[in-house]
Request: fold
Amino acid sequence: MKACPECYGSDNRATPILNKKACLSEHMQYICGTCGRCICIAKDSKRNLARWNFPFKSLEIAKLYLRAADFSEKHNCGIYEIISQTGRKSYKIFPTKRDFMNYLEKNNKQSSSMAALFQEETYLVFPNTEVRKLTKDEIVKYLQS
Ligand SMILES: [Zn+2]
Ligand SMILES: [Zn+2]
Reply:
């Protein structure tokens, strides 16, 4: 399936990944104006971090959250590879390459690539985007389809 030009997903119900119902009912969602996919965009109140700030197991999953990062930062963010000291790979979104480099240094982590593995060329604004909590009916529909 072709990737959505707005949210980079190829399945319009692929997110949330974990605890779908709780995420959709409790968290603010980025609702893709092009395909209708919902991406958790809420920041956790304690640490001020959103889901997209955390490392992902795969590049594919990171891509599913990238639009929430782009929209929050109003900037085309990049997905970078991170290798832990034990050699485990993960994928994390950073607004800029400098943020990525700082993270590697601070956390004593490595990467086999200093370039983003995925990043849009520019930040685009789409006309039908909504950022809000879903209604009960919308949640039911979203989970059924
Ligand atoms: Zn959520
Ligand atoms: Zn979309």
